[in-house]
Amino acid sequence: MDILHSQLTKIQRQLAFVAVEPINWKLYVQSFSWAVTLFESYLLIRQYPLYSRKEPPKELAEHFEPGVFEKSQNYGKDKAKFALISGLFKQLLDSLMLQFGFYAWSWTAGGKLLAKFGYGPEHEILQSIAFVFILFFLSSIPTLPLQAYGTFVLEEKHGFNKTTPKLFVTDLLKGWALAFGLGAPFLAAFLSIFKWAGDRFVPWLMAFMISFQLVMVILYPTVIQPLFNKLSPLPEGELRGRIETLANKLKFPLKHLYEIDGSKRSSHSNAYFFGLPWSKHIVIFDTLIQQSKPEEVEAVLAHELGHWYYLHPTKMMSISQIHIFTILALFPAFLRAPPLLRSFDFPKAVAAQPPTIVAFLLFQMILTPLEAVVSIGMNAVSRHFEYEADRFAVELQDQLGDEKMADMGERLGRALVALHVKNLSTVWVDWLYSAYHHSHPTLTERLKGLEAFQAQREKKKL
């Protein structure tokens, strides 16, 4: 622990200038946040002409019924327009809040609110919670029309929306209640560790973050998910039999197999698994069951089990912990930096003893350009994992010695095509747009990958 602390101290010495030099951090954040937004707009403009193509890639032409590809292109075009406008609107909103001291005002407002209940500025954690939720609620209100448009106009126009206005409002209120119910104690614990651990907070915060993630793995399916969707045991039948047999052969620790009523809100489909290492749960959207054959759903689950087999969730969690550690290691220099808060219009009295949550929030803004680069790297890792999981499905027969698994790669390819066609997913994708936005390879890339894996498998047999 002492060695770690000494290394972190060296980093802080290199960043000591932050605490004394009057850098115009507001201009820095404004410039780089706009740079990221304009770059994302540029990517949308690069992608947009591809929605005007009249024919799908030749590898996919036979899978589109007449008129379906045109619907897919129109859906992609409308989503791109909406993404461009909403992205610029949100950036403009954030920029105005920064420019006119909204963050400083929210901290003061939180203090005044607590004062009415007899709590003074010495209760920093309570004021921090009030500050965060004032920011959260007031900044989310202007974006509500965008959410409503996306659901009731965009998704409705293309036949995907199943959400009623009542359900939309109910979900919104539940989300806010959940944000407060979980966010307030999380934030209180997070800030308490800062105060208790002093300069040695990094390893303790890391331990807290990992523990919180593990707790959420337990709470999500038992407490949070049921607030929004109904999870029912997958009925007995061919699909359940296929999945349980596959899980048993792979020694996958399957505890529950659920069907979720995704069609309650949308006709988009998906499947996923979650849980602790010794207790896993598989969830399949009812829309996926309706849109695909049992053998194709089994292939999708074979791909998902490939992620488990290669420990992809654990690896991604490890990478994210390294990312969090890096952020926390850099943060102390910004924690005691009055010029940072003064740059964002905080009063001298507040800036002289920077509140932890305020300094951390502003620090996160400063990291905006770095986070954009990190997201590209994370996407690259995720795509590599997707290829590995696809290869796992293709080679499943060799691993299990089951001839019934010989066509798993072909089944997975058919399932992927069906999912893309039913969801009107874009099949023409600009490479740079994909690198920045997509955590999965494109459909054509995955189909070519499946063919290559199958060819390699056949070659090994010769």
Automatic annotation (TrEMBL):
Positions of the CAAX prenyl protease 1 N-terminal domain: 47-230
Compartment annotation: Endoplasmic reticulum membrane
Transmembrane regions: 125-154, 175-198, 204-223
Keywords in alphabetical order: Endoplasmic reticulum, Hydrolase, Membrane, Metal-binding, Metalloprotease, Protease, Transmembrane, Transmembrane helix, Zinc
Ranges of residues in domain Peptidase M48: 234-452
Obligatory cofactor(s): Zn(2+)
InterPro entries noted in UniProt: CAXX_Prtase_1, Peptidase_M48, Peptidase_M48_N
A GO CC annotation given for this chain: endoplasmic reticulum membrane
GO MF annotations in UniProt: metal ion binding; metalloendopeptidase activity
Known catalytic reactions: Hydrolyzes the peptide bond -P2-(S-farnesyl or geranylgeranyl)C-P1'-P2'-P3'-COOH where P1' and P2' are amino acids with aliphatic side chains and P3' is any C-terminal residue
Enzyme category, top tier: hydrolase
Coiled coil: none
Binding of Zn(2+), residues: H303, H307, E386
Bilayer disposition of the protein: Multi-pass membrane protein
A Pfam family reported for this protein in Swiss-Prot or TrEMBL: Peptidase_M48
GO biological process, one term: CAAX-box protein processing
Catalytic residues (positions): E304, D390
Assigned EC number: 3.4.24.84
Cofactor note: Binds 1 zinc ion per subunit.
Family according to the record: Belongs to the peptidase M48A family.
Summary of the function given for this chain in its UniProt record: Proteolytically removes the C-terminal three residues of farnesylated proteins.
Name this protein carries in UniProt: CAAX prenyl protease
Organism ancestry: Eukaryota, Fungi, Dikarya, Basidiomycota, Agaricomycotina
